[in-house]
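Notebook, p. 212. Picked up where the previous page left off. The plan for this session was modest: take the two constructs that came back from the sequencing core last week, fold each one, and keep the raw output in the notebook itself so nobody has to go hunting through shared drives later. Recording the first one now, exactly as returned: residue sequence, then the structure token string.
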Amino acid sequence: MAERIAILGAGAVGGYLGGLWRHAGVDAVLIGRPRVAAAVAAQGMRLTGQAGGAILLAPERIAVATDARALADATLVVVAVKSAATAEAAAAIAAHAPAAAPVLTLQNGIANRDILAAHLPGRAVLRGSVTFNVAHDGARWHKATAGVLAVERHPATQALAARLAGRPGCPVLRDDMLAFAWGKLLLNLNNAVNALSGKPLRAELSARGYRRVLAASIAEALAVLEAAGIRPAKVGPLPPGLLAPFVRLPDALFNTVGLRLQKVDPAARSSMADDFAAGRASEIDRLNGEIVALAERHGRDAPVNRRIVALVRAAEAGGRRAWSAAELERAVLG
């Protein structure tokens, strides 16, 4: 069977990678919401934020399917839906994708891979992680921070990497994806802080009070991981143990060095902030909630992350969504 990649979830990450892969000549089908399909059908895709300028795909070169039957001929299924839709995605894969097609999840957190595997017995379910931020608006996808696409090594992902060698969207193959996923989760602990700030990512990270909350959640997470015997991998320019001290730096240092290291531009925002704006359930249980659950399994408490989870759930229920740095620091740290 000829190579055919089906991307289930053509939102920010799925749409961006799907567009890059189509531009590189990979046979990739995107499956997403009707509003995304309509925007792409009318305008095509515009991908920005890569070195070398914008990538434009005319409508005749790219389409977004809205029916899971588009999975039928896939040789690799990429799952890029929100965590709340993981079981639904698994059901669609089971019903429509060939049994031999491996499944690669690019979702946040740790548990989604295990949920997919439980629903898809006998299939290869692989971990992947996208460490950059993508802002999506209509028919435009913008890479708003530095980062990579890391994926578990497997013949299907090796073939994709060989096909995309030297091109944007080429995956980095790794043999330690579980450790890498934990390392990525440490970075994703900022999603909730950003969403609760009500500010763009750069503006939030520029305020030391928000970063103190983030640093406390990272430090607590590292203590829980150590108790559980888990060693997260380095993701980005700093090892896990230096993340909390780094984000605690005074504004004068962090705002000149930290934001430059991550290449955070004004368009960047967290996926949880997008969830708040769209009225969707957030992925808090797969981010800070993963730390709280892991702590409980090992007889520990994670009060900082537990308080952040509570604030996010209150916001989802109609509560406050725009905390100043000082207010959020008091609410979380006391």
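Okay, moving on. Second construct, recorded in the same format:
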Amino acid sequence: MPGRRISAFLAALAVAVGAAVLGPMSATASAAACATSWSSSAVYTGGMAASYGGRNWQAKWWTQGETPSTAGSGVWADQGSCTGGTGGGGDGGTTGCDHPAWTAGRTYTAGDIVKYTNGNYYKASHDNPGYDPVISTWYWDPYTCGGGGGTTPPDGSFVVSEAQFNQMFPSRSSFYTYSGLTAALAAYPGFANTGGDTVKKQEAAAFLANVSHETGGLFHVVEQNTANYSHYCDTGRPYGCPAGQSAYYGRGPIQLSWNFNYKAAGDALGIDLLNNPSLVQNDPAIAWKTGLWYWNTQTGPGTMTGHNAIVNGVGFGESIRSINGSLECGGRNPAQVQSRITKYQQFTQILGVPTGNNLSC
């Protein structure tokens, strides 16, 4: 009816006039500034932010190429709607931060906050003489400048206690410290922190069981067969082997080897391991980070990462396939497979959880 149309028009006009007088809706007014737009080619590590679809997102752990959403692997955390240009001047989406750039060799005290070359903020966990923020004496800290930040779990929050760790590895090298492991956890906060308490402990046991097998109970820091050292340089890679033909032998809890793996792990962790592979045998936290990098991001000869094998309930056997399936699984080396299984059974017993199904590959 004409009269109803006029009334509706006047009502809409009144709402529009009221909005102009009262200002925009509070939800719009309170929307945060958008972080730098997400890029499918960019590497994001825990705490880094990106905007996509009018919303800010924060990476929980390392990711590349996964579109921000609440689906998928769960690596992205929705931070809410955003508006306008990029926020924080490339500081990972935080706003209002005013902390100095990190300077190598400068003395820092516990609690100092610096802006690193990758645009993220880090807070010193204790006094140090200018160590690189991505190395062991620093927390990975997506600092909010409002009192937030600090993704490194506090003492005791890891599902494996130090006493249990010592029980698992009674003859380990002094290099493999419990503090080095807990300091490395911030690089992959989803590790042993996804799902219920049982799943968390199963993942920790699975990772440590494979690590134990690879290193003889955390006894070996570097590969023992020195005759293999010169074999791990793939000269076909464009970046070559700048540290030397024989510099990329197995190191650390997963025995990281080959120049391309040092390059990939270093890129993911923000550490130049291609030029400095010895960091993996000299810094416990970096060594543990490379092990967690492989476990959380690499499928190897398998079909999924070790992390996904456990948290998705596929079973411990699939984690074996991801690490060394081409040489051990399918009946190729049952004794090696059983060695890994036995350690997993021991470690789950220490942690008081069942092993789950599908132990073998």
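Notes on construct two before I forget. The chain is about 35% helix and 10% strand.
Flagging for discussion at group meeting.
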